[in-house]
Prior knowledge:
The chain has three domains: 27-81; 86-165, Serine Threonine Protein Phosphatase 5, Tetratricopeptide repeat (Alpha Horseshoe), CATH 1.25.40.10; 178-256, no CATH class. The protein is 78% helix and 0% strand. The longest helix is centred in the middle third of the chain and has 28 residues, at 149-176. The chain is built from twelve helices and no strands. The chain is elongated. It starts with a helix and ends with a helix. The chain is an all-alpha fold. The protein has helices spanning 2-27, 31-43, 47-60, 67-80, 84-97, 104-118, 127-142, 149-176, 180-193, 200-216, 220-240, 247-254. Helix 3 (47-60) runs antiparallel to helix 4 (67-80), helix 4 packs antiparallel against helix 5 and helix 9 (180-193) runs antiparallel to helix 10 (200-216).
Amino acid sequence: MMSKRIYIFFVAAFMLTSCGEYQEVLKSKDLDFKLAKAVEYYDAKEYAKAFPIFDELITLYRGTDKAQEVYFYYANTLYFQKDYILAGYHFKNFYKTFPSNDKAEEAAYLTAYCYYLEAPSHSLDQAYTYKAINELQLFINTHPGSERIDDCNEYMENLRGRLEVKSYEIAKQYYKTRKYKAAMTAFTTTLSEYPDTPFREEAMYLKAKAAFKLAENSVEDLQKDRFIEANTALNDLEQIFPESDYLKELRKLTNK
């Protein structure tokens, strides 16, 4: 029992001492001391401690030879705290403001990578997916000899895959909710933008089926042209997938 109390006492004493030391760092007017401590916290992966110090030092070191170093540390503390949107913003600002800095290439890459990490799954809004693709392509174009190019290409392929699934799922949702005209347009877009999609056969089938459904439910004046369009979609599927299991079902629709 006594040993447990002693342990608790020493833990509490250590925490109070550590807290007191950190407050001294925050209150210190010695900029070089504060920078050294911020780097020490950073190297120890205590990013939450390092961040407010770097945040203050950005302003205090502005216009000095240490300004760029402090700013890069600042952006990295955001990155390691997983605040990818803000980190990406500051990495981009860093490489645009200091293009000659030896960290500029890394900052440009991390800008794109932050947006990549922030990009959501295919079921959510894809705004950051497009931002990530744009930044990755920009990095590839401006740093063609970088050792990070292969990683960037891999990230772009992953992101485009998400957009492909998103495009296809939107088209399917239109079909499921009986918005057949919108579904046809959406399937056409998917097939045009992603010609090698693994969903190609099913997308062509659903586009043709949506076309037949639209024709069936149209007023008489529009039916002829819309059935022609539906049969064209059927023929397109048959030409590319002559053994498709969907053909039998679609052919029945032509005889209604």
